[in-house]
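Q: C-alpha coordinates for this one, please.
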Amino acid sequence: MLRRPLATDGPAVTRLVGACPPLDPNSAYCNLLQCTHFADTCVIAEQKGDTAGWVSGYRPPSDPHALFIWQVAVSPAARGMGLAGRMIEALLERPAVRSATHLLTTVTGDNGPSWALFEGLAARWGAPLHRRPLFERDTHFAGAHPTEWEARIGPLAR
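A: Here is the predicted structure, written as C-alpha coordinates:
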Protein backbone atom coordinates (compact mmCIF):
# COMPACT_ATOMS: atom_id res chain seq x y z
CA MET A 1 0.00 0.00 0.00
CA LEU A 2 1.26 3.48 -0.90
CA ARG A 3 0.07 6.42 1.20
CA ARG A 4 0.81 9.86 2.58
CA PRO A 5 3.02 9.80 5.66
CA LEU A 6 1.82 10.72 9.13
CA ALA A 7 3.80 12.16 12.04
CA THR A 8 3.69 8.72 13.66
CA ASP A 9 5.70 7.38 10.68
CA GLY A 10 8.72 9.49 11.65
CA PRO A 11 10.51 6.80 13.71
CA ALA A 12 9.96 4.14 11.04
CA VAL A 13 11.33 6.48 8.36
CA THR A 14 14.38 7.18 10.51
CA ARG A 15 15.01 3.43 10.94
CA LEU A 16 14.48 2.71 7.24
CA VAL A 17 16.84 5.45 6.06
CA GLY A 18 19.43 4.22 8.57
CA ALA A 19 19.16 0.73 7.07
CA CYS A 20 19.74 2.02 3.53
CA PRO A 21 23.32 3.18 3.13
CA PRO A 22 24.64 5.22 1.40
CA LEU A 23 21.67 7.49 2.21
CA ASP A 24 22.56 10.33 4.52
CA PRO A 25 20.63 9.88 7.76
CA ASN A 26 18.50 12.85 8.68
CA SER A 27 17.63 13.78 12.22
CA ALA A 28 14.45 12.29 13.63
CA TYR A 29 13.08 15.84 13.76
CA CYS A 30 13.79 16.35 10.04
CA ASN A 31 11.91 13.14 9.25
CA LEU A 32 8.97 14.31 11.39
CA LEU A 33 8.85 17.56 9.42
CA GLN A 34 8.92 15.65 6.16
CA CYS A 35 6.08 13.42 7.38
CA THR A 36 3.97 16.44 8.34
CA HIS A 37 4.89 19.68 6.54
CA PHE A 38 5.81 17.85 3.32
CA ALA A 39 3.34 14.96 3.50
CA ASP A 40 1.78 15.90 0.16
CA THR A 41 5.14 15.38 -1.55
CA CYS A 42 6.29 12.28 0.32
CA VAL A 43 5.11 8.68 0.20
CA ILE A 44 5.27 5.64 2.47
CA ALA A 45 5.08 2.08 1.15
CA GLU A 46 3.75 -0.54 3.54
CA GLN A 47 4.01 -4.29 3.14
CA LYS A 48 2.40 -6.54 5.73
CA GLY A 49 2.22 -3.67 8.21
CA ASP A 50 5.91 -2.77 7.89
CA THR A 51 7.41 0.35 6.34
CA ALA A 52 9.01 -1.02 3.19
CA GLY A 53 9.68 2.20 1.32
CA TRP A 54 9.95 5.95 1.61
CA VAL A 55 10.26 8.76 -0.88
CA SER A 56 10.68 12.31 0.35
CA GLY A 57 10.33 15.28 -1.91
CA TYR A 58 9.27 18.88 -2.17
CA ARG A 59 8.39 21.59 -4.68
CA PRO A 60 11.36 24.01 -4.80
CA PRO A 61 10.16 27.60 -4.39
CA SER A 62 12.75 28.73 -6.95
CA ASP A 63 11.53 26.14 -9.51
CA PRO A 64 7.76 25.75 -8.98
CA HIS A 65 7.34 23.47 -11.99
CA ALA A 66 9.63 20.84 -10.50
CA LEU A 67 9.36 18.08 -7.94
CA PHE A 68 12.64 17.53 -6.11
CA ILE A 69 13.14 13.97 -4.86
CA TRP A 70 15.23 14.18 -1.70
CA GLN A 71 15.51 10.55 -0.64
CA VAL A 72 14.40 7.16 -1.89
CA ALA A 73 14.68 4.29 0.56
CA VAL A 74 13.54 0.71 0.04
CA SER A 75 14.01 -1.94 2.71
CA PRO A 76 16.33 -4.80 1.77
CA ALA A 77 13.37 -7.24 1.80
CA ALA A 78 11.42 -5.14 -0.74
CA ARG A 79 14.23 -4.45 -3.24
CA GLY A 80 14.19 -5.65 -6.82
CA MET A 81 10.40 -5.34 -7.24
CA GLY A 82 10.19 -1.86 -8.78
CA LEU A 83 8.88 -0.29 -5.58
CA ALA A 84 10.98 2.87 -5.83
CA GLY A 85 9.66 3.68 -9.30
CA ARG A 86 6.07 2.94 -8.29
CA MET A 87 6.37 5.27 -5.29
CA ILE A 88 7.69 8.12 -7.45
CA GLU A 89 5.02 7.58 -10.10
CA ALA A 90 2.29 7.52 -7.44
CA LEU A 91 3.66 10.75 -6.02
CA LEU A 92 3.52 12.41 -9.45
CA GLU A 93 -0.23 11.65 -9.60
CA ARG A 94 -1.07 13.54 -6.41
CA PRO A 95 -2.90 16.87 -6.76
CA ALA A 96 -0.02 18.74 -5.07
CA VAL A 97 2.41 17.47 -7.70
CA ARG A 98 0.37 17.06 -10.90
CA SER A 99 1.52 20.41 -12.30
CA ALA A 100 5.21 19.42 -12.11
CA THR A 101 6.85 19.35 -15.52
CA HIS A 102 10.27 18.16 -14.31
CA LEU A 103 11.63 15.76 -11.73
CA LEU A 104 14.86 16.78 -9.99
CA THR A 105 17.18 14.94 -7.65
CA THR A 106 20.83 14.84 -6.68
CA VAL A 107 22.94 11.70 -6.75
CA THR A 108 26.60 11.04 -6.08
CA GLY A 109 28.48 9.77 -9.11
CA ASP A 110 29.09 6.32 -7.63
CA ASN A 111 25.50 5.57 -6.58
CA GLY A 112 24.69 3.04 -9.29
CA PRO A 113 21.27 1.97 -7.96
CA SER A 114 20.00 5.56 -7.85
CA TRP A 115 21.30 6.34 -11.33
CA ALA A 116 19.65 3.15 -12.62
CA LEU A 117 16.35 4.20 -11.03
CA PHE A 118 16.30 7.70 -12.49
CA GLU A 119 17.69 6.68 -15.89
CA GLY A 120 15.05 3.93 -16.02
CA LEU A 121 12.26 6.36 -15.15
CA ALA A 122 13.44 8.83 -17.81
CA ALA A 123 13.50 6.05 -20.40
CA ARG A 124 10.07 4.75 -19.36
CA TRP A 125 8.63 8.26 -19.56
CA GLY A 126 10.40 9.09 -22.84
CA ALA A 127 11.90 12.18 -21.21
CA PRO A 128 15.48 13.42 -21.37
CA LEU A 129 17.71 13.26 -18.30
CA HIS A 130 20.28 16.05 -17.95
CA ARG A 131 23.17 15.88 -15.47
CA ARG A 132 25.27 18.63 -14.00
CA PRO A 133 27.37 18.97 -10.86
CA LEU A 134 25.27 20.87 -8.32
CA PHE A 135 27.15 20.65 -5.03
CA GLU A 136 30.85 19.96 -5.49
CA ARG A 137 33.09 18.01 -3.11
CA ASP A 138 35.61 20.76 -2.43
CA THR A 139 33.54 23.90 -2.97
CA HIS A 140 30.40 22.91 -1.05
CA PHE A 141 31.40 19.99 1.19
CA ALA A 142 34.96 21.02 2.13
CA GLY A 143 36.16 17.67 0.78
CA ALA A 144 34.04 15.67 3.23
CA HIS A 145 31.33 14.41 0.81
CA PRO A 146 31.36 13.42 -2.85
CA THR A 147 29.98 15.79 -5.47
CA GLU A 148 26.20 15.68 -5.74
CA TRP A 149 25.10 15.61 -9.37
CA GLU A 150 21.72 17.08 -10.26
CA ALA A 151 19.59 14.86 -12.46
CA ARG A 152 16.80 16.78 -14.18
CA ILE A 153 14.19 14.70 -16.02
CA GLY A 154 11.71 16.41 -18.28
CA PRO A 155 9.65 17.79 -19.58
CA LEU A 156 7.30 15.10 -18.35
CA ALA A 157 4.41 14.04 -20.55
CA ARG A 158 1.35 14.82 -18.43
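A few notes: The longest strand covers residues 50-58. The first helix runs from residue 10 to 18.
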